[in-house]
Each structure stands twice: as structure tokens, then as C-alpha cells.
Amino acid sequence: MTHAALVTLLAPLVGFLVLVTLRRDASERLVGSVATGAITLSFLAALVTWVGLLHRSSREVTVTLFGWLSTGSLHAPVALLVDPLSVTMMLFVTGVSALIHLYSTGYMQGERDFRKFFAYLNLFVFSMLVLVMADNLVMTFVGWEGVGVCSYWLVAYYFDRDSAASAGKKAFIYNRVGDLGLLIAMFILFSHHTGLGYLQIATSASTHLSGTAATWVVLALLLGASGKSAQIPLFNWLPDAMEGPTPVSALIHAATMVTAGVYLLVRMAPVLALSGSGRTTIAVVGALTAFVAATIATSQKDIKKVLAFSTISQIGYMVLAVGVGAYGAAIFLMVAHAFFKALLFLGSGSVIHSLHGEQDLRKMGALAAVLPWTYPTFLVGWLAISGLPPFAGFFAKGAVLTGAYAHNKTLWALGVVTAVLTAYYMTRLFVLTFRGRARYRDTLDAEPHESPAVMVAPLVVLAVAATFAGALDLPWSHQHTLDTFITSTVGVSASTIGVSGTGQWTLALIDVVVALLGLLAAFSLWRSSTARPALEPRFLERVWYWDDLYDRGLGRPLTRVAEETTRVDDVVVDRVVEGVAGRVSASAAGLKKVQTGLVRHYALGMTLGVSLIVVYLVARVG
Amino acid sequence: MLALTTTWPDLLVFITAAALIVVGALGVISLTNPVHSALSLIITLFGVALSFLEQSADFLAAVEIIVYAGAIVVLILFVIMYLGVDRHPHDEVEPLVGQRVFAALGALVTVGGIITLMAKSHWVTGVMSASMNGTSLSSGQGEITQLGQSVFTTYLVAFEVTAALLIIAVLGAVQLARRDRESEVEQ
Amino acid sequence: MHSSWWLTALLLLPLAGVLGVSLTRSRPERARRVALVSVGVEFALSVVVALLYNAHVAQASTWDFGVRWVVSAPLGLAYDVALDGISLALVLLSTLVALVAMLSDRAPRREPAYLAWQLLALDFTVGAFVAHDLLLFFIFFELVLVPSYFMVAQWGGPSARRAAMKFFLYTFVGSAPALVAVIYLGFLHQHEVGGNLSFNYSALSSTVMTSSQAVWIFVGLALAFAIKAPLWPLHSWSPSTYGEAPVAAGAQLAATLSKLGTYGLLRFALALTPLAVKSVTPVVLVLSVIAIVYGSLVAATSRDLRRLAVFSSVAQMGFITLGIFSGSQIGVTGAVVLMVVHGITTLGLFVLIGALERRRGSARLDDVRGLQGAVPVLSGFVTVVAFATIGVPGLGGFVGEFLILLGAFGVHPAYAAVATLGTVGAAVYWLWAYQRAFHGPLSENATGMADASPTERALLWPVVALVVALGVVPAPLLSRVAPSVQQIVAHVTPTGVSR
Amino acid sequence: MTTLTLPTINYLALAPFLVMAGMALVLLIATALTPSRISTRVATSAAVAAAGSALVITIVQGWQIARHGAQLTAAHSVVMDGFSALATASISSSLIFALLIAHDWEGRERFVGAEYQMLALLATSGAVLMTEANDLAVVFLGLEILSIALYVIIAFNRRRLKSQESSLKYFLLGGFAAAVFMYGAALVYGATGTTNLTSISYFLGANVLVHPGLLWAGGGLMMLAFAFKTQAVPFHFWSPDVYEGAPTPVTGFHASIVWGGAFAAAIRVMVSGLGTQSDTWRPIIWGLIVLSTVVGALFAITQVNAKRLLAYSSVTHSGFIWLGVWAATARGVAASVFYILTYAPTVLGSFAIVALVGGVGDSDHYLVKYRGLARRNPWVGGSLALLLLSQLGVPFTVGFDGKFAVLAASLDAGNVTASVVAMLAAAVAAFAYLRWVASLFAEGDPDVAPLVVPWASRVVIASSVVIVLVFGIWPAPLTHLAQHATLYFQP
Amino acid sequence: MSVPASWYLVLAAVLFGIGVYGFLTKRSVITMLMCVELMLNAVNLTFVTYARTLSDISGQTIVFFVMVVAAAEVTVGLGITVAVFRRRRTTSVDELTEMRG
Predict the structure, then answer these.
(1) Does residue E15 lie in a domain region?
(2) What is D431-450 written as a DSSP string?
């Protein structure tokens, strides 16, 4: 089993190394096979690991590879922690990744730097696996940053487009700000002698951490999570990240990387348990993000932007779940979301592909007819995210909302409103894309066509997954398969949440009703129209002026500060030195006049010198 | 105090010597014609010789007249005449701003300070016995004998090395005053 | 305990190289071969020494290869060399930097002389690092100025002369009080124990002094070291010097010579004046934090890779001094690691600057776009250097920065927290700079530019490999450095912040 | 009838003086007896031989001193101790250098005859006398022999007006200083009853002067003469003008031979004679140190003339040597002696090159002439660079060791402020040297022909470079010697 | 008994002061030379006075040497003056300012 875990981790790395060392003119088929093969292998190994873990009595297996950062009292080895949580993550990360790799071999056909793309992609998967499989925070941080770097490269993949380059940079820097949180959290933990290994923290947190310290750690972690998982206040890099190729959006910016923050929070559940106020903050941030992002998603014109805000909103749900202690629900939604959001992104990729790169919803319409495979699979995704049974989204979202309801009614209400909005904007997207008039004919000369099989196949697989993933964690009779599985890690079970059976049925009904509400509203509003300014206020289109706020409040002032500092450096710091030097030479030049060449002046100088000596002596003698 | 220790003739000699010295010195620095200055210097030298005599340094008094007044000043006078600079009396306006004020200040402070220091020390703090092998200035012996003894014992080396000094003087005078045969080109 | 001849050989070899170069100076190509051979052998030798080095030579000490040989007793001059983990790391760095720098740079004229100066700079740097004697260290520390001056002044850019002069005078002024402090400390020791004047490191470190004496000695020494590092706000010589220096000289200056400053701060200024630590630490920490923020801010506006290197270094030096004065073993260890990593990345950066300048005549970033399209491999190298500076885990920079911040946070949480911001700063200025020149549509003046030549690749791949290796398996470095650091930390804070 | 008992004289003590003065006399007689002028080659050879013999004699002296200890001779007016022997050795070897430089110079200027050599020998004999003088009268005579001979050779080049002008300036100020010195000596005589330094120190050791004013006034006035000869500020004014005006070979005299004598006498008078009063005169020297180092450095950086620059540079260096005198300890004396010992060849080597660059006429010494020298004459340029770097105080040159030694001595005696000031001033002065060094390596005028370096200059330059480097890296022999250069009497 | 030594010492000091002042204010080289002679005479007077006070002949002997030195100095000094005068036709020191700074 440990070997399988190792293979899971290393297969992508080997894939990356092979791709890097491949000849520059290697065929796309070879490159694609290597990359996809590596990830597939990884997925299979993950399966083996999972099975192996199921057959173990101990649900926490540590695999230490070698000592890494060990000095003084710090011991951060390169070690893997295979437990239910990490196995769950491994499985869906490698699974979704494998599908997206396969899809990409079709999508990226003929692109420049094909090999580099897959190398980055493999490296990304490796980093993501490091993140989820690490046995300690420092190593998690390695993966954490690694996915950030890969994200930077992949977002800025079309580097000759300024917008892509800027987006990549923006993504990295926002993440970096979040990373501060993770770093600080590590520092606080370490300075309280909890150690940085997860198992260590789990055992020692309650004794070593005071409530205040725990709150600080939780807040710092939340900052880290909000950077990586695009939550308020650091969410606005994710829409820009859509500048990357669509498979990248699907993999990194929907399914895997952006959920790392949620994973981290769940991972740190033992610390979260120590801080009630910290968890409340998390819940509020999650609920707010879910709501805000959903409102924005209702007014976006770019198909990928809608999906991006949808992702933010869905992750908001996950964070909300973490905040209310429904860790199982969070992971459940994460997995389910990975399926249907990847499906939606890949579907949108297929749409964009068919329209030769067109992403504007207003220039689509009536694609249902020309995309026989994409259309039904997308339909599944749409229904899943809208929260209609029996699709996965219904169960997952239901679990989250149930948790929220038990914890805080206000947050639950916000979640329900968000659910309406979700159904609304997704339906709008769906309608504008596949229904109505074929508006693409106005701008596009060529005829749209369905994508090749390599792209379609993953869509089908994901559609199936999105349909049946709900079975992972069915609430009835308190089955909660997934939740039970990871309870050993998080220490909190869904069965302890305390909503009665009737209550759960009622809540589920409400979910269905609100989803239908949003769905029908969108249908009626958008079936015949492409522009409804009243429903797309500038305020929402401009993302609540969030970017402008940062730009005015932070970006520009900082730029000015930097420029001023530069000026200070040129003018003051250097001038001080030059000034001293100048003063020295000026005084030297002034002194030069003393040397008049007149011997009588010289003699006078000497005489005055003697006078001084004599005066000193007189003074001394008293 | 003064009346008790000093006889009138001595006082008279001192006053005369002091007058000669100061007047002569003031003449040197105030007269514009170098020739006059040189002559004034001779007055000072006579005053100094007189005070030497008064302080029982008879031989030195003689040397002072013969060597200083007789040789050195004559040499100076000779050069003044030779160069003819007496015909170009210097302008009495001091061209250097503040030179005189500061010169006076420097001289006054220095001399005043030295006098203060001397006075604080009761004018003399040494004792004769300090000299390891100095010859005492006893009244019975001739001063010249003692001087001779001192020169050839305590100051034997000093005396001998004056020879080097004199060689330099000769050599220097010859070297400096010699005219170059080749044309003098300023480089 | 190993024979001291290893170190003596390390010191003599470059000198032999200088001799060889001067004998063959009429045939520049041959002179170059001689120089390369000697610096190559020097590097190999330093690797051998590193392998031989035994971190626990005796129970009491981590010093190895030691010998003391008094040159002039009245002056207290002695040939006193020894290695511990910290100096070992820096000696290795110096020889590596010298080798790569020399390979990467060709002088357009009078190359033999240039090579000879490089060898001398290497020799003096190594001398300073192996000196186990305050005075000997100071001598080498000062001596390094001479080759640096000549390299910059004679082979540098258009206003190199002025820059070199400024550099020389700035550092020279700084070391004037340092010499006084050195001697003063020597006498404190002599008056205490009697015997001859001695500046032996071990002897001096047990000198008894009052805390005000300690502070004065510290200030005297630290000024010189801070200028060399350069620590904010004493960095103002570096923009012009790094801006004008030829590539090899710039690499040596920025990568290794600057480490003389931080090394001196750690080894001498800090370790010899434990009583001063309490009162000077806040000052140094404030300066370090300012340096980090300030360096990042100015670097963010730089339109030139050289200037970026300068202010990036200012910020990195801030991290290093933060680590040194963190009072924590982890922090100090991190500082030493970062010294090494900064040396390597700076070396890579200067090689890249050289590569760009060979192609474009300048390392400016604002008059060219989309270089990544034209020179993808070079761009890749730039990215690696950038990420190492940013502190991306898996690369060496992270190890250093992380240890520094981790160590410092335990003792001085506020300073460490602000310093952590610097890790964002590095991302900001590097990515900005990268985007400016390497992203975007390919500009006309960059089309047709040749990508990395085989030589350049051969020079840069080892740099990348080292940066990665230090990030992934830092243990060989840590295990050698940590015992030595522990000794210093234990000496400076006897009550022991052993974290 | 009184009998005259001549004092016993240890001729070994006086031998260096006698050899030099004697050779001067021989040359004088030879000049008088031979019909044609003596050739420069003969004159130089003879003078170098004399200087060389003096050097050898000092070795014998040192050997004697090591075996029998230091001794007084000639009625205690002359002392032979390690200090005098080493100082004399320094002066004698400096003379050899100076004579060799002058040899080439005389060739260029087409001077014939032995006048220069005679005067140089005589001047040097005065300096030698100062090193071993144990009586204020002998100090004074040594000083005057040195000075008066110098006046003449500074004015030696009759074709250069500057030469004579500077001689006249030096003469006037020198006469003034000599008079002040002698007045000081008179006051000391009145204060102690003797002019013999040993007697003075015995007297002061045996008697506590309740009213030391007279003694102090005497000491203070005498200090002027020492400060004057050693170019300490504010008594340095003559030096740049004289350095610029004097024939270049003579310029080299100042910071080597003159300093040898003047510092030796200063140390002997201040430490040996008036050592008990060190608390009083230390502040004066402190002032000299601070002023000399700072003012010298400030003036040096604005100079455009190589010789003037070196003049101000030596003003700064003088301040450093005074640091050792300030300490007034055995360490201080040794440090100052070491400094003089090493600075002399440095400065002589520099002037050898300056003389060469000055060329025929010896008049154009502007720094612009040095542009590209290291390119045209790599060895000469490199040597000059090294000598300048040594003066700057770069390690592994004697300049660093010297600075280090005096700083150590001064700090050992507790003089922190002046030490720091001096070091900072040295850093300022570094600019002057560095600018010069930079121009050496700059792109020069391609039309300028490389220098032709005659053998004598070659010897001087090579030896000075060797000394600077070898003793820079390995100062032990010299520090050892300096350590043994103890004064006969030191309180 | 003679007048107190202090009188002569003050007299000598005054003479010395006059010499100094003259040296600083006269422009003719020859007059300056004479001022130096005044100073030296003050020195001599002091020596002789102390010789009498201390009853020690040394003071007088030294005067002897001072005179020799004075003679040599004057000889050489006048030699230089003559040499300069030949070229510059002046004995004013104020005109000797070719070197400065």
C-alpha cells in the first residue's frame, strides 16, 4: 500500500521529468500518451492505496521518505500521510486529472508548446498530490506553492497576450498573499511547540494551544485558504485566471487546486475545534463568498467567467460547511463539485472549441443541435450544479445546507438564496448557450462541429460521475459513507450535527423548490433575450467594484509608495552619502584657500599654533 | 625688594641695555629701509652684548660684537648694497588683511603666555647640580677657561659637528651664488 | 582534525594561478586556460575539503583543518586558519562562483589581467572565510577591495571608474572604525589574560568586557560589515557598482563578497560581543525589516535587471540579518542557508545578465517585450532564479527564508510577521519584471535573438541543479552548518534559545 | 692651571655621522684638487658607499648593543641604543635610495660635480646626529646641519625658479622654527638646569616640580620644531610648496631622512627627556594628530600636482606616526619607528617614479601626465599603484602594517578618539590615492612614448616594491627590530 | 648684585616677541632674516641669564653654538636671497606665490 501511495505521488513527477527531457520535436501523440499515462497510472495506484487502506486496522499510515528540513527542534521530513482524507483527495484529484489530461490531448492539438503544457500539467498534479499527501504543514506548503507556480505558468500560457500574462501574475501574487497566512499559521504553531506534523498537531494542539493562539492560527489559515480557494477578500484572481486554456480552468481553477484551501481547513480540524470564533469567521466568509460570487455570476457575459464565479460560490459553500463543522459535507461537495464543475468547464471548452474560441454568451445559442455529445453531458452538469435530485449536487449542497441550518439560521438562509441564484445563473448560461437563436452565425463564418472523441469521452465519464456521486454520502438512515470514512481525521461526524430526519426531509424539499424557482425564472427571462440591463447591473458586472477597490486602495498607493521609495533611494539615501562626500570636498576646496603661497601667512599660522599651545599650557598650569 | 638686591649701577646698566635692545629691535621692525634696519640691529646687538657683560659673560659679549655686529650684520649690509634693495623701500601699507593684527596677537599671546609660565615657576626651577658634568660658573676662575673646558668636554661633539655646519655654509654659498654659464632657461 | 595544508593549498592555488596568468599574459588564450585550470582545481579542492570536513572534530569545537602560525607577535598578526560548517559553505560558494563567473565572462581587452584580478578576489575571499583570527579576517576583508576595485574600474561600464571609486571609498570608510574596534578588542583580551597580542577567534570570544564596550566594538565592526553586505541604508554604493561592474566581477561582488559582510556580522560582530546583543538586536531587526520592505519596493520599480539584482539583494540581505539576529538557532541556520542560496541565485542572475547584455547590449527590461517567445530557455532560467528568490518551496531560497522566519517568529513575532510580507514583495517585483520583458507580444528588437548557447546552458544548468538540490535535500548543508551555528548561538545567548 | 680631561668617545656611536660627513669632506677636497668636475657616477658611487658603510656600521652597532647594552658616550651627549641604530639604518638606506634617484636626475638635468652628493651626505649626517643626540645642543646642531644643507639642495636646480622660491620659503620658516626651538631649549635649561636629556629625565624623576610652567613652555616651544620638520598641522604649510618646488630627488628626503631625524629627536626629547610630563604634552600631540590627518587628507583630495599630493599625503602619515609618539610607550615608540622604517622606502619609491615622469626639467608633475602610465609602462605603473595602495593602507603592504602598529599602540594607551579620526581621515585620503591609481590604468594619450627607466631608478623602484610587499606580508623581521629599538632611557 | 634674572628674562621674551612680530610683518627677506636674528639674540640672552642664575657655564657654551648656527644660516640665507633676486629682481616674500593651494 505504501508503494502504491508512492507510485501515486511519483508517477506525475516522472511524467514531468520525461516530458522535460523529451526531444523538442517529440510528437504530440507521444507527449499526450506520456502525460495522460502517468496520471492514469497515478489514479490506478491511488485506487490500490484506497483499497489497501480499507483493509488496514489503522487508518493513518505515515510513509517517511527522507529527512528534509531538520535542524534544531524543527523536524519536517518528506513524509506522506495516507489516511481517509488524503486518500479521498488523491482519488478524485488523480481521477479528474486523468480525464482532463485525456481531454487536453484533443483540446490543445496544434498549440505551441504542447510539450511544455503537459509538463506543467503533470507537475501540477504532482504538486497537488504533494499538497494532499503531505504528512506535515511544511511539505503541504511545498505542494501549496507548487500548484501556485504551475497555475502561474498555465494561466500565463498564452504569454504573448498581455491579459494572460497579467492574470498569471495576479493569480500568483494573490496566492502569495494567502500564503502569508499559511506561513504565519505554521510559525504560530511552531512557536507553541505543537510541531508541524498533522498527527502531532492533532494530538498536541489541545494541550499546547490557548484559545487565542488557536484563533490566530485559524484566522491565518483562513487567509491562506481564501488566497488559494478564492474566497473573500482574495477571490478576484480566479475570474482572471480564465485566461488560461480551458482544461487548465477545469483542472486547476475548478476541480483541484482551488479546493486546496478547503482541504487545508479540514485537515486542521483539530485546531479549528479549539476556536469557536475562528470557525464562525470561516462560516461567515464562506457564506458571504458564496452569495457575492453567485450574484456576480448572474451578470457575466463570458461563459468561463460565469463558471469561474460559480466555482467561487461553490467553494464558498464548502468553506461555509467547514465553518459550521460539517467537514464531511465540505469534502462531499468538493468531490461532487470536482465532477460537475470539471464537466461544465470541459463542456464549455468543447463549446468554445466548436466556435473557434468564442467565449461570449451573446454570440452563442442553439448549439444543442450541433453538439450532440456536449449538449447532454452539459445538461447533466447544469442540473447537478443547480441542485436537482438525483444529481450529486443536490445531495452535496443539501448536506452543506443542513449543516448550516443546524449551526446558524442566518447563514442557512444566505445559503438558500445563493442556491436560487445558482440555479438562475446556470440556467441562464445553459439557455444562452444551447437554446434560442443561433446567434453565432452573425459572427462566425465556419460551421460549428462536435469535438473529437478524446474530448467527448471525458465528458461522458464526468457526466456519469456527476450523476451518481451523490451515492457517496447519502444522508438517509445516516449512511454518510464518505463522512464516516473521514471522521477519523476530522474528529466530527455528520451524525452529530443534530437535525432530525423530518427536518432533513424538509430541508431537502426546500432545496428542490428553490432550485426549481431559479431554474424557471431564468428560463422565462432568458429564453428570448440576450441582454437585460436591469438584471445585469454594472455593479455586478464589475464584480462589486472589487478590483477597482483593490486598485485604488492598494495597487495604486503601493505603486506610488514604491516609486516614492525609489526616488527616496536615488535622492535621499544616495544623496546623503554624496552629500557627505560633497561636503568633504567642498570643505577641502575651501581649505585650499588657506594655502596662499604667502610665506608670511604660513609663519602666522605657525605662530598662532604656538600661541594655542602656550594658551593650553597656561590654562593647564592654572 | 628691588632696592635691596640691586645696586644702582647695575640697574643703570640694565636700563641702558634694555633700552638699546628694545629701541634697536623696534627700529629693525619699523624702519623701511633695510640698511637702516640693519644699523638698528647693531644697536640691539650692542644692548645684548652689554647685558652679557652685566651677567659676567664677557667673552660672549666680545663675540657678540665681533661676530654678530662685525661679521653677520656686515654681511647683511653687503648683500643689501649688492642687491641694491635699499633703493626700493617697501610700501608701508600691509597688503595682507589682518596680518598685523594677528601677528601682534600671536606674538603677544605667545610671549605673554611664556612670561606667565615663567613667572608661575618663579622664573627658574632648575638647579645647577642637575647638569651631570657641567662646569660650574665659579667666580674665581676665568670665564673663558670655563667656557673652553665646557666646549671641549660636555659639548665636545657639539663643537666638532659645527665644522660640518661651516662646510655646508661655504658649500652652500658657493653653490647658490654661482652663476650658471649656460643660459638660464625657466622650465 | 585534518591537516591545515588543505586550507593553505586553497589559499596558494589561486595565487599560483595569478603567477601563471602573469607569466602567460602575452598569450591571452593560454592565460585563460591557466586561470580556468587553477580556479577549477580550486573548486575541486574545496569540494574535497567539504567532503573531508568533520562537523564534530572535537567535542568542544566544530573547527577543523586549523593551524595558528604567528607572523608578527608585536602586531598580533598571525596566519590562523580553520574551517567550520559556516565557513565551509561559504568557501564552497566562493569557489563555485569564481569558476562559473570566470567561464561566463570574456573581457574584450587585457583579459589576462582581468583573470588575475578574479583569481585574487577569489583568493582573498576564501582567505577571509577560512580566517580563524579577527585580524586576519579583517585583512582579507579589506584586501578584497583591491581586486574588486580594479575589476569594476577597468572592465566595467561607461561610468565604472566613478562607481568603483565610490564603492572603494564607501567600504573603506566603513572599515576605518572597524580596524579600531578590532584592535581595541585585541587589547581588551591582552590586558585580561596577558601574553602577546592575539586576535585568535576562540581566544577573543571569551573576552570579558562591559556591555557598553561590547556595544562600541559591535558598532565599529558592524558598520563595516553592514556596508559590505549591504544592509539598508548603507547600500547606496551598490546600484552604481553593480550597475557598472563587468559580469564576472558583478557575480563575485554580489554573490560572494557581499557574504563577507553577513559572515562578518555573524561570526565576529555578533559572536564576539554577546553583551551587545540585547541592545543592538532591536536596531538591527528594524533595519532588516525596513531593508526587506524597502528593497522590494524599489526593486518593483526597477527597469533593469542589474538594478533589480541590487535591490533584490538588499531585501535578501534583510532576511539574512533578520536570521542572524533572530537569536534562534533555526533562524541563524536559515541565514547561512540563505547566504549560500542567494550567492548561487545571484550568480545565475549575473550569468543571465551577461547573456542578455551580450545579445542586446544591456539588461534593460523596459525596451523589449515577449522575450520568452524568442529565448524560451533563457527565460526558463530567469524564472528559476526568480522563483528561488521569491522563496518557492523545492528551491533553496525557501529553505533559507522559511528557517529564518520560523526561527525569528518564535523570538520576535512582530518583526518576523512584517518580514513575511517580504515574501510577497519578492513575488511582486520579480513577476512584474518578468512580465515586462519576457511576456507580451514579441517586440521587434527581440526577434531573431539566439537562445541560450551550449556554454550558457552548461553554466546555468548546474546553478539550477544546485538551487533545486538545496531546496529538496538541504540536509548535507544543514548538518554541516547547524553544529557550528549552535555553538555561536549558545555562546551568544548562554541561557539558550535553542529553538 | 686647570687640566682638561677630554671625555671618552665611543667612535662606533659616531661612526655613521663621521663616515657621511667625512665622505662629504673627501669629495669637497677632491673637487678642489681635480681640475675638471667630478663625474656624477664617481660622486654617486662614493656617496652610496658612505651611506652603505653607515648602514653596515649600524648593524655592528646593533650587535654591540645586543651584547653590551645601550650606552652614552662623549660626556653623555651622544647615545647609542637600539633606537638610534635602527633610525640611523633607516636614514642610511633612505639616503642610498635618494642618491640613486638623484643620480638619474642629475643625468637628465646634465648636472656634473659632487656638490649634490656632498650636501646630501651632510644633510643626512645631521639627521643621523639627531637620532643619537642626547643633548638639546646636539639636537639643535643636528637639526641645523640637516636644515641648512637642505635649504641649499632644495635650491640646487638654479634653472627652476620654483626650486629657489621654495628654498627661500623653507629657509625663512625653518629659521623661525629653529629660533623657537632654541628658545624652548633655553626655557627647559632654565627649568631643569641642564640640556642633557638623561640629566633632564633624572632631574624630573628626582624632583617633582611644583611649578612646571617653565618646563612646559620650553617643551611646548620645542615641539614646534619637531612638528615643523615632521609636517604636522599647523606647522606643515611649507611642505606642499617645498615638495612642489624642490628637485624631485630632494623631495624624497623629507618623509624619509628628515622624518627619521626629526621623529627620532622628537621621541627622544618627548619620551626620554620629558616622559614624566607626558600628561601635559599628550593633548598637544593629540591636536597635531587630529589636525594633521584630517587637514592632510582634505588637502590631498583636491590636488592636481603629484608632488603636492604626496606632500599632503605625508602630512596625513605624519599624523599617524605621532599616534605612536602619543602613546609614549615602548609599543608606541616601536610602532612609530616601524612606520618610519616602512614609509621611507614607500615614499622614496614613489618619488623615484615621479622624478621619472617629471622628465627633463623636472617641472611638470601634474597628475594628468600619469594617465595611462600603467599601460605604457606596466611595471612602473603597477609599482606606483602598489606604492600608492600601500600609502592608502591596503593589507599585505607595509602601509597597512604601519597603520595597524601605530593604531594598536595608540589604542593600547587609550587614545580611541584620535585613532578613529585618523582612520576616517585615512579613508578620505584614500580618494586621492585611488584617483591617481585610476588614472594610471586609464586609457592614455597614445602619442606619449613609454618612459625610459635608467638602472638606478629601476633599482630604487624594484627595491621599494619588494620591501612594500615582502614586509607587508611578512612584517615580523621589521616589527622584531622595531620592538628592540628601545630608548636608552624611558620612564 | 645684579638686577634680578627675571628682568632679563622678560627683556629677552619681549625681544623675542618683537622678533616674531617683525618676522610676520616684514616683507623683505633680509629684514625677516634680521628678525630671526633678534629672536636668536633673545634666546642667547635667556641662556646667558640662566647660566648666571644656575651658576652653570653650559648656558654660555650653547650661546656659542647658536652664534655659529646663526652665522651659517645667514650665509646660506643670503645666498638664496641673492639667487632669487637674480631671477626675480625682488626680495619681497609677498611676490613668491608661484606655488599655492
Answers:
(1) yes
(2) HHHHHHHHHHHS---TTSPP
Going by C-beta distance under 8 Å and a sequence separation of 6 or more, which residues neighbour residue A491? A202, A269, A270, A273
Q: Hey, where are the domains in chain B?
A: 1-88, 140-187
pLDDT < 70 positions in chain A: 475-479, 492-499
Asked whether residue C3 is domain-assigned, the answer is: no
Q: Which residues of A touch B120 (CB under 8 A)?
A: 621
Residue C366, domain extent: 275-499
Q: For residue B180, what pLDDT is reported?
A: 62
| pLDDT tens digit sequence for D418-435 | 999 999 999 889 989 998
Lowest mean pLDDT among A515-519, B177-181, D299-303: B177-181
Number of structural domains (chain E) is 1
In degrees and rounded to multiples of 5, residue A324 shows phi and psi of: -90, 5
Rounded-to-integer distance, Cα C378 and Cα C347, Å: 14
* Chain C contact probe: residue of D86, D333, D420, D470 with most C CBs at under 10 A: D420
Residue keyed to cell 523538442: A24
User: b or e along A324-349 (b: 16 or more beta carbons within 10 Å of the residue's beta carbon)?
Assistant: bbbbbbbbbbbbbbbbbbbbbbbbbb
Q: Is E26 left (phi over 0), alpha (psi -120 to 50) or beta?
A: beta
pLDDT at A23: 82
Residue E9 lies in a domain: yes
Residue-wise burial string across A73-110, b where 16 or more C-beta atoms lie within 10 A, e elsewhere? ebbbbbbbbbbbbbbbbbbbbbbbbbbbbbbbbbbbee
Other CB atoms within a 10 A radius of the CB of residue D440 amount to 24
Cβ of C142 within 8 Å of Cβ of D394? The answer is yes
Give the ipTM: 0.91
Give which of C388, C314, C316 is closest to C352, Cα–Cα. Answer: C388
Tell whether C16 lies on the interface with A, counting CB pairs under 8 A: no
pLDDT in tens, A92-111: 899 999 989 998 888 888 88
CATH: 1.10.3470.10, 3.30.70.360, 1.20.120.1200, 3.90.70.10. Which one for B1-88?
Answer: 1.20.120.1200
Pairing of strands A61-71, A74-82: antiparallel
Q: What is the pLDDT of residues C149-192, one digit of tens each?
A: 999 988 888 888 888 888 888 888 888 889 999 999 988 888 88
pTM (predicted TM-score): 0.91
Inter-chain contact E58–B155, Cβ cutoff 8 Å?
Answer: yes
Separation CA E60–CA E62 (nearest Å): 5
Domain ranges of chain D: 12-484
Number of domains in chain C: 1
Q: Does residue E100 form part of some domain?
A: no
So what's the pLDDT on residue A269?
Answer: 87
Q: Is D137 in Cβ contact with B128 (below 8 Å)?
A: no
Rg of chain B taking only CA atoms, in angstroms: 22
Range of the domain at E19: 5-91
Say if residue A442 is exposed, middle or buried (CB neighbours under 10 Å; 0-12, 13-18, 19+).
exposed
Which residues in chain E have their CB less than 8 angstroms from residue B17's CB? 11
Q: Is residue E97 part of a domain?
A: no
Chains E and C touch (3+ CB pairs under 8 A): no
DSSP string, D209-268: -S-THHHHHHHHHHHHHHHHHTT-TTS-THHHHHHHHS-HHHHHHIIIIIHHHHHHHHHI
pLDDT tens for A52-79 read: 888 887 788 888 888 888 888 888 889 9
Dig out the grid coordinates for B29 from the structure. Answer: 621692525
CATH code for the domain of E78: 1.10.287.3510
Q: Which residues in chain A have their CB less than 8 angstroms from residue D424's CB?
A: none
Interchain pair A618, B116: CB under 8 A: yes
Distance CA B27, CA E18 (A): 10
CB distance B42 to B24 below 8 Å: yes
Q: Is E37 on the interface with B (CB under 8 A)?
A: yes
